[in-house]
Amino acid sequence: MTEVILDQTPPILHGPSAKEKKYDRQLRLWAATGQKALEDSHVLLLNSGSGTVGVEALKNLVLPGIGKFTIADDMIVEEVDLGMSKASPFTSEKQEKSIGELFEHDKFTLIMYSLPIKAENLAIVQDYTKRHKVPAISIHSAGFYSYFKIHLPGSFPIVDTHPDISATTDLRLLSPWPELSQFAEGLTENLEDQSLHDHGHIPYVVILLHYLARWKEAHGTLPSNFKEKTAFRSTVAAGMRTDNAEGGEENFEEAVGAVVKTISLPSLSSSVREVFGYQPDETESSTSFWVIADAIKTFHTKHNALPLPGSVPDMKAQSTVYVQLQNIYKAKARQDAAEVLETVRSHPGGKDIPATEVELFCKNAAFIKLIHGTTSASSILEVAKAEFANDESAALTQMPLSLLPIYLSLGATSHVNSATASDIVAKIGKDIPEADSNPSIVNAAEEVARANGGELHNISALTGGMVAQEVIKIITKQYIPIDNTCIFDGITSRTQVLRT
Amino acid sequence: MSQPVMVSGKLTTPGGSAMKKGRWTYLDNVRRNPGPFVSEEFTGSEEAVTASERVKVFGAGGLGCEILKNLALSGFQDIHVIDMDTIDVSNLNRQFLFRASDVGSSKAECAARFVEKRVKGCSITPHNCKIQDKDDDFYMQFNIIICGLDSIEARRWINSTLVNLVDPENEDSLKPLIDGGTEGFKGQARVIFPTMTSCIECQLDMHAPRAAVPLCTLASIPRQPEHCIEWAHIIAWENEKPFPALDNDDPEHITWLFQKALARAKEFNISGVTYSLTQGVVKNIIPAIASTNAIIAASCCNEAFKIATQTNPCLGFEENYMMYTGDAGVYTYTFKHEKKDDCPVCGNLARDLEVDPNLTLEEFIASLAERAEAQLKKPSIRAEKTLYMQSPPSLEEQTRPNLIKKIGELVGNGDEIGVTDPSLGAVNFKYRLKFSKEYRGNAIETASAS
Ligand SMILES: [Zn+2]
To answer: What are the residue boundaries of the E2 binding domain, all occurrences included (chain B) (predicted)?
Structure first.
């Protein structure tokens, strides 16, 4: 990611460009590639009702620099081109169009629409998003409650998920390749005779490789279970010299601390297994994601490991030794990526995929993620049954109560501006029998009825913030969007994400 | 380039008493009608409905724009805002009340002017200074304090100030403190009832400081681009003094550091030093986006609204802390952080502290900066008598000789010490020292000191 920013940096003495200065705080999150995706996007907001939540979401997208947006409010359509490259700040054009006309001409990157919405308008939106495979987000905010739901047009795979940095360490200590083993052996020869300085600067990766080799000589196998790992850790700790001024060695302390985390066989995360198990349809399978994913699957079948990401965490070491170690990991990562690239090239759709895309994919292979996008196969009744069953044991598990009743109650007013509590409960009762005897549903319905369809500014501002985050994640294809409904309770200040 | 304002539709509300009713209908729905979760005190009377209009709110910090707009549109009519900063071009990606033409002007004044103009009947008083410049009398006038401060020191200062303000005889002296902060896609909002619930100092260890890179790594064995930048920042700058004083906001200074760091990185074959990274390390830049600011500011203002209107239960006495994470899905964790009896601000018990009696007082003071629950950069210390005072200069000079003395020489095992830091307000740590090792004494140093 830093490399991308580097490419964008103009000659050193001039410092960052005006755009880089203005967007500095966000380029650190999604880099120039994400910014480009935002600037190329055209977002449609279909507003109805008081519409604060939609406008708040849009505000949080205009600020980071989306290229173009259109607001359609019943009959009035306003198109605003923020023209980042043009001299004038932005152009705005207001005209009367019907919702149907709006969709005849424009191509949108993403659509946000707020509820309640007229059923016929909703049908037009749904038809458009289906035909053009455009993601949409529906948003409903009333009183202290809100929810939003993401409607993705098909499977939505993400490579650049930005995993937590501490989770990404992959050192392959249990299956070192020859270059790494040789390097470790070279640094640990005559370990006992090494000077205090040398001994205290052996990188912990090398220390662990050394003691693993000794362990294997003694036991025939590598430490695998908890008990063996604990014993192994004691062996490493015993190797620390304590007769120096500090009474210990930092690098050995690092080695001891890294045992549990790094001495384990690589296993595929459930999200990677999901990608490997997914059967892309015809159009999907020719996209670069699925071509590369398939090549990585082939790599994994052959080597029983994913391509090496190639990064090395910081550790106590001499500068030169650390850089050598980094280079050994980088070389292996390049070698693995080259093998994947070869498979990609042999695929009919893989001729034009940039090598950099394959490299990035290999680097993030352990953290790729697939969001299915299609609506849940289970009915709302099944979802409700599962949620309310959880609620029954909530007192024991100390888990908060399900927020599904909020979704159900707002959902009952999807096409009307307001309703009485009993109307809402009756409507829910059509899908969920005995809704009227569920106190959570009755309370939520009363709270929704109390708001009388009115938005509270804070709840809509908060919801608009969450919606904008999701839009950014979808447009930049970075980080992980929700799957697929997020419910917010402004009374307890909690969210819950559910698949509905 | 100017920023189009997206809230115009909702902000341009006509003033005048005739319009007043229609204008706040959406608030009145919840202010007049009881809900299933309201407390028994909820009445919905005219008196109660207009109560929030008389609530005086204080806001500060980087979330200021959002907080002001949210409060004004939630019916608050007497708002004070404090911010000593001027508008920087890098604020424009999230602080929507500011335009490119406002760069260089006072944040507080600019934001106040904007919102006051758009929301008729709402008075916003800007204060272009630090929160620490105001005294107890100033803070006494408010009913609710909302802070979106970006420094932990400022948070600790306002927290201890508000705890100290509480007078058991005077109900009005208890000012709810609502605090919000963001970092990238993450953030938190918390509500504190000073002296009654867990305070910011009780929760300090949740925001542990990043461990500093050892100086020897910077000086002799750099491995990361950050090490090269820190070297340029701490060592090369001091040695060469290319400009009279380092100004983090001067691109020429950053460029100097960048080139120094780049040269050092080249020498050690380290890749990854960029201008952007240099700026990030030197200024300790935290990524910030409009959407996260909107979420956290709105969460804070939602709590203020509930406190002022009693339209629903607020965070505070049970759950008091909401953590928000938006980078992988959306996740909130809302929980109760317990008040600590040994809190240096709202508690009165001493806490145990393991200490090596062979450390010098100076080394011990340095270690307090790194302890997650202390994070004290300029502490003064007293035991039975004063061990070290940072100020006034005469006392500092008098107590300075103690810095090189060993802990074991100055205090006994099990003794209690008090640690204060006036820059953080009325923070007062009480530690009961437990010696972790035997005190070896130090005949040579004692002799030379006498
Ligand atoms: Zn406290």
So the answer is: 353-436
